[in-house]
Amino acid sequence: MDDEILYNKFIIYLKRYDNNFFELISKFDINYNKKIFNELKGRIKNFSEFKGYTTFFYEDSKIPSMELMFNTKMKITDETVVKK
Q1: pTM for this structure?
Q2: 14 burial type by CB count under 10 A (0-12 exposed, 13-18 middle, 19+ buried)
Q3: Eight-class DSSP state of 49
Q4: Which among 76, 84, 77, 32 is positioned nearest to 54, based on CA atoms?
Q5: What is the DSSP string of 52-76?
């Protein structure tokens, strides 16, 4: 099946069954979405699996707080040691 037809069927599926995820990916460029879809189309067997594989592409990155990097047992107690 042609990639464009398959992608359009995927969009129809999202509008019908997972409108929240459709709204999320609609905020991104269509070419970005198509690249992700084309990479995963060989892995997924049905459209419902797509969300599980791609949520990290559409979420904000989560940067851990600096305190998580401190470790008194390893004598990492300040930010300069962490950066080294």
Answers
A1: 0.66
A2: buried
A3: G
A4: 32
A5: HHHHHHHSPP-PPPGGGG-BTTTTB
Torsion, Cα of 46, 50, 53, 55 (10° steps)? -160
- Residue 8's SS3 state is helix
Measured distance CA(53)–CA(47) in Å, rounded = 11
Q: Inform me whether the pLDDT recorded for 82 exceeds 70.
A: no
Burial of 3 (0-12, 13-18, 19+ CB in 10 A): exposed
Higher pLDDT, 17 or 82: 17
